[in-house]
Amino acid sequence: MIRWRKGEVVRIRREWPGAVELDVAVPEGECRALAYPPLVGRPEPGDEVLLNTTALAMGLGTGGYAMVVAVPNRLPEDPRGPGHLVKARYTPLQATVLGADEQDSPYHDILREADSLDGMPVIVADLHSALPPILTGLFDGAPGTRVAYVMLDGGALPAWFSMAAARLRELDWLAGVVTVGQAFGGDVEAVTTHTGLLAARHVLAADVAIVAQGPGNLGSGTRWGFSGVSAGEAVNAAAVLGGRPVAALRVSEGDKRERHLGVSHHSLTAYGRVALAPADVAVPRLPGAFGERVAEQAGALAERHRLVPVPVDGLHEALRACPVKLSTMGRGLEEDLAYFLASAAAGRLAASLLS
Hints:
single chain, alpha/beta, CATH 2.40.50.140, Rossmann fold, five-stranded mixed beta barrel, 11 helices, 17 strands, 24% strand, globular
C-alpha cells in the first residue's frame, strides 16, 4: 500500500504558502518531493527525510510527488493553542485544527445558530481546475465580488497543495479558503460542507461561494465510481441552506475519452442523479456543431434544473488575461478552450444573480 524511502534533501526547488517542493536523493537517484511545513516542519538541504513514494512510483499526474512524512532528526515543536477538530482521522498523519464550528472557536456562537446563506450564489464544479476560470467569468461581470472557496475532500486533502489557491489568495481574488470534511489547511476549517458554506457566508462575509474538490480527483470509468459525485451533494447542501446553486458543467473538446467529450458523464450523473434540489445550470453558448452537442447533452438535466444559456463572448480574452495558470488534465487554455469557457460561463451566470 505504501512505498517507503529514506532520503536526503539536496535542494529546495520552490515554495508557496504551506508547501515546499524539494529535490531529494534516494537510492534510485534524485526525486521530486513535497513537504507541508505545518505538518512536518521545514526541511532544509542536508536533512534526512522519510518519504512516501507511492504516488511518484504510480506516475500520478496531479499528485506525482514523493511526500515527506517526517524529518526525523529535526522534529517540529508541539502545536500550541486551541483546536480539537481532528482531520485525516485515524491515519498516521492525523492533525488537529481549530474548526470554525467547534466550541473553542470565536465563531462558534455565530455558526451554532446560523441556518441560512441568505440567497448567496453557490457555484459548484467538478474539478479544482475550474476555480480560476470561474473567478475570471465572475469578475468579468461583477468585479470586486467577495468570494470564498469551499474545498471538498474528494481530491487533495491539504489546501496547501494548491498553488492556484495560494496565488488567488495573494491577489485577493479569494477572501479565503474553507476546508471541509477531511480536507484541512484552509483559512477556515469546518466539519461539513454545510458548515463550510455557512462559514463562507457568515465568517468570511462572502458574496459568492465556489465549491469544488481539491486538486486531483478519483475516477474509475464507471457511472458512480468518481469523487465528483460530491458536486451533486454540494448542490443539495447549498439549496437546503437557502443558497442559490449554480452548476458549472464539465465540458471538454480535447479529452480523448468519449465519456468526457462534450458534457462529461460526471456532470450528468452528479447533477442529474445525485442533486435532488434544482440549480441554475450554466450552459455555455459554444459555436458550431460542438456547441449544439453540449446544448443537447445538457438538455438531459432540464427535468430537474433550470438550464440557462450563457453567452461566452469576451470570455476567451478574459481567460487569456487570468493571472493564474489555466490547466486541466494537462491541457492548457488553447488545448481545451471549451472546458475553460464553460467554467467561466458559470461565473458569468453567478455575476448576473448579484445585480
